[in-house]
Design goal:
The complex is a heterodimer of chains A (110) and B (112). With 110 residues, chain A is an all-beta fold. In chain A, 0% of the residues lie in helices and 47% in strands. Chain A is built from no helices and 9 strands. In chain A, strand 3 and strand 4 form a beta hairpin. With 112 residues, chain B is mostly beta strands. In chain B, the strands form 2 sheets. In chain B, strands 2, 4, 5, 6, 9, 10 and 11 form a 7-stranded mixed β-sheet that branches. Chain B has a 4-stranded antiparallel β-sheet with strand order 1-3-8-7, with no helix packed on it. Classes of the chains: A mainly beta (110), B mainly beta (112).
C-alpha cells in the first residue's frame, strides 16, 4: 500500500501557484519524498525529490515540514499544460520500489 | 538524451490470445521496470531487472505473464493467454541503480 495520502482532486487558475499537499506521517528517517506527474496518455514524469530540506528545480519547489510528516509541491505559475495527475511517493533510495497511490488530479483552469 | 522507448503504443486482442510488449531503456541504465496501470489507478510494479537478472517479480502473475531482458539492455513482457482484466497500460521505466526512475510512454492493451 502507498504510504502517502493526497486529495483526490484540485483546481487551480492559470498563472496562479498550485500547491499540492501530501501527508506521509509514517515516513522513516531514510525515506525520500518523490513527486511524479502523469499527463493524459503519457508515462509518469519525474518532477522533484527531497529528504528533509526544501528543494527547487526548473519545474517546481518541494517544501517538507520539519517533522517530515507532510510536504507540499508548488508549481509557481501553473499553465494549462500542468493539468495532470500528481503522485507523491515516499521511498528509500535503496531497497524499496516506488508504490504509487491514486494521486491528485490537478485541473488548471483558464 | 533519448528517453525510454516502448512499442507498440496500442494493442487490441481477444481474450486467450497472446501479446508481447517491447522496451528499450535509457542508454546506460542498468535497472529496468515493468508496471501495469489499470484505468483510474496508479502504476503497479510487475517486475524489476538489474542488468539481465530479476530483482523483484513478486507481483508478476507468473501463470500468464513472463518477462525477459536478454543481454541486459532491452526487454520484452509477454502475456499468454490474455484475460479481460489484463486491459491496462503497460509502462516501462529505467534507472541508474535504484535512483530516480524514468518512464516510457506506455502500451495501451485492450482485451476483448
Amino acid at each position: 500500500d502507498a504510504k502517502t495520502t493526497q486529495p483526490t482532486s484540485m483546481d487551480c487558475a492559470e498563472g496562479r501557484a498550485a500547491n499540492l499537499p501530501c501527508n506521509h506521517s509514517t515516513i522513516s528517517g531514510n525515506e525520500y519524498v518523490y513527486w511524479y506527474r502523469q499527463i493524459h496518455s503519457q508515462g509518469p514524469q519525474y518532477i522533484i525529490h527531497g529528504l528533509k530540506n526544501n528543494e527547487t528545480n526548473e519545474m517546481a519547489s518541494l517544501i517538507i515540514t520539519e517533522d517530515r510528516k507532510s510536504s507540499t509541491l508548488i508549481l509557481p505559475h501553473a499553465t494549462l499544460r500542468d493539468t495532470a495527475v500528481y503522485y507523491c511517493i515516499v521511498r528509500a533510495d535503496y531497497g524499496q520500489n516506488f508504490v504509487f497511490g491514486p494521486g491528485t488530479r490537478l485541473s488548471v483552469l483558464p | 538524451e533519448a528517453g525510454v522507448a516502448q512499442s507498440p503504443r496500442y494493442k487490441i486482442i481477444e481474450k486467450r490470445q497472446s501479446v508481447a510488449f517491447w522496451c528499450n531503456p535509457i542508454s546506460g541504465h542498468a535497472t529496468l521496470y515493468w508496471y501495469q496501470q489499470i484505468l483510474g489507478q496508479g502504476p503497479k510494479l510487475l517486475i524489476q531487472f538489474q542488468n539481465n537478472g530479476v530483482v523483484d517479480d513478486s507481483q508478476l502473475p507468473k501463470d500468464r505473464f513472463s518477462a525477459e531482458r536478454l543481454k541486459g539492455v532491452d526487454s520484452t513482457l509477454k502475456i499468454q493467454p490474455a484475460k479481460l482484466e489484463d486491459s491496462a497500460v503497460y509502462l516501462c521505466a529505467s534507472s541508474l541503480g535504484q535512483y530516480t526512475q524514468y518512464f516510457g510512454p506506455g502500451t495501451r492493451l485492450t482485451v476483448l
